[in-house]
Automatic annotation (TrEMBL):
Gene3D superfamilies: Vaccinia Virus protein VP39. Pfam families: Methyltransf_3. The keyword Transferase applies. GO terms for biological process: methylation. GO terms for molecular function: O-methyltransferase activity; S-adenosylmethionine-dependent methyltransferase activity. Keywords: Methyltransferase, S-adenosyl-L-methionine, Transferase. It comes from the Bacteria. InterPro entries: Cation-dep_OMT, SAM-dependent_MTases_sf, SAM_O-MeTrfase. This is Methyltransferase.
């Protein structure tokens, strides 16, 4: 996977000073280097642009890398709502989105994402694009909550669904691997979803909502 990913990144992803600045800041702050891969980021931009999504919800902001990639896909009317547990991370991500030119087009809700999702539902908010990239044990809960906030035809994308390739190895039974296997199977069989797993980065699940 590593070899394939570095080939894809080398051939298809151009050098990007803005995103490299985000990674450098994450490193300087001693945060974990767990942003999406460059190719996954490019794919997020393309998916938002291809679906012409305007109301995008992200779960897991970290330093703003994926947030910038998502925002690059929408036009002037686009808006990103990003859910992040840590206040410091949300502030860092917000600063990076502003630096990238999206200051008026992003809001951060801090605290446990499940609480923020319940609040968004109470507020009657809906979205046409979702990106799930936070605590893996809650992926199934996030999927259910996103479905409640989704318009018909919305896209739900989730990162790390290959769990380093371990989902395809019957001999590995780590908690993280089992959670991802269960999540993938739920998405694959869900009556309101049409889903496929793309082996880019650590695996992106792409699901289209059919309501
Ligand atoms: C893999 S990182 C996100 C990376 C980011 N999407 C990117 O590619 O730039 C996961 C993020 O989820 C956040 N997180 C973990 N548990 C959470 C929870 N229960 N609610 C909201 N955010 C959570 C972490 O603080 C971390 O910033």
């Amino acid at each position: 996977m590593e070899q394939i990913n570095s080939y894809i990144n080398k051939v298809f992803v151009e050098q990007d000073e803005v995103l490299e600045g985000v990674l450098a800041a994450i490193n300087a702050q001693g945060m974990r280097p767990i942003s999406v891969s460059p190719a996954s980021g490019k794919l997020l931009t393309m998916l938002v642009a291809m679906t012409e999504a305007e109301r995008v919800l992200e779960i897991g902001a970290l330093g703003g890398y994926s947030g910038i990639c998502l925002a690059r896909g929408f036009g002037e009317k686009g808006h990103l709502t990003s859910l992040e547990l840590e206040q410091d991370y949300a502030e860092l991500a917000s600063a990076h989105l502003a630096k990238a030119g999206f200051s008026g087009q992003v809001d951060y809700l801090t605290g446990p994402a499940l609480e923020s999702l319940a609040q968004l539902k109470n507020d009657g908010r809906t979205f046409d694009f979702f990106f799930i990239d936070a605590d893996k044990e809650n992926y199934e809960n996030y999927l259910a909550a996103c479905l409640e906030l989704a318009e018909n035809g919305a896209l739900i994308v989730a990162d790390n669904v290959l769990a380093g390739g371990s989902v395809a190895d019957a001999g590995i039974q780590r908690q993280h691997t089992e959670a991802m296997k269960k999540f993938n199977e739920t998405a694959a069989r869900h009556p309101q979803l049409e889903s496929i797993l793309l082996p880019v980065g650590d695996g992106l699940l792409v699901s289209r909502v059919k309501k």
